[in-house]
Amino acid sequence: MHTPPTTPGDAAIRRTSLHGSWPDNTYAGVLSFMRRNYTRDFAGADVVVSGVPLDLATTFRPGARLGPAAVRAASVQLAELKPFPWGFDPFDTLAVVDGGDCWFDAHNPHTIPEAIRQHARGILASGARMLTFGGDHYITYPLLQAHAEKYGKPLSLIHFDAHCDTWPDDSPDSLNHGTMFYKAVKDGLVDPATSVQIGIRTWNDDFMGMNVIDAPTVHAQGVAATLQQVLSIVGSRPTYLTFDIDCLDPAHAPGTGTPVAGGLSSAQALAIVRGMVPVNLVGMDVVEVSPPFDQSEITALAAAHIACDLLCVLAAQRGAKA
């Protein structure tokens, strides 16, 4: 249906259609996410992948500004085969482009939130949905603001993380990757009663009314029960999904800023993500990959697989089948 050229390669800048795949050498070529077209022309796109390379809001290790590039680089093998266990090419169904990275002035930090909001508004105005790579987890707050403008507030939130990120912060100008969802609840951006946090293993005296499925509970009750619980909480409401890679145990994701032992395995997390087909996903992000602390790209690979599965979830919602 989408015939590659006689001499394939560099599909990200040579493919004329937004659909389909063709061969690229895994070790060479233009490193867009899963070799999707690099473009700022979003006409006809169903999903725009982009990065927000920010790590000024971290409270421990830096390095997440390098995350978007690492996730793109780790996605090269995923672009070569039909994703497991789906058995279909999601790009036969979904038109996905890589819109590059959000530009902001890192030396003028109070301008950064508005730069991220404007970046998101431009993509959402095209009618496409967003799959965003961090960067630290603060980026989800301006992304939620833009999504709430588009889809109405409050949204439901599915939040994978080791940390609840609802610690108090009443400063309107702070950049803090541990307080975004305190602000999001206070601002009415998300409805805590129809939102769920998965994999939590740090304490907060006030979880802001969020439904919490902590990591020990996931381990004890298993993936199927966890997924059933998540689906019952969010229902059919417009839902934003955010995946902090430190939801995974450090054995599965060492390259992150605030690792916490006892987390989910990559197998558990992927199984839960793959069960999101019934969810009305309006936006998604994968954050907190910090390549300087990674080992053999373990963390970036996990993030790329999660992102790929999120695209497959959207394709399955549109009827894609093996």
Written account of the structure:
The chain has 322 residues and is α/β, with parallel strands linked by helices. 29% of the residues lie in helices and 14% in strands. The chain is built from eight helices and nine strands. Strand 5 (156-160), helix 5 (180-186) and strand 6 (196-198) form a beta-alpha-beta unit. Helix 3 (112-125) runs parallel beside helix 4. It is globular. The mean pLDDT is 95.
| Name of the top-level CATH class | Alpha Beta
Task: Estimate nothing, just give the exact number of structural domains.
Answer: 1
Q: Please outline the major beta sheet.
A: 9 strands, parallel
Radius of gyration computed on alpha carbons: 18 Å
Which structural category do the helix and sheet elements fall into?
alpha/beta
One letter per element, helices H and strands E, the order comes to: HEEHEHEHEHEEHEHEH
Helix content: 25-40%
Beta content comes to 5-15%
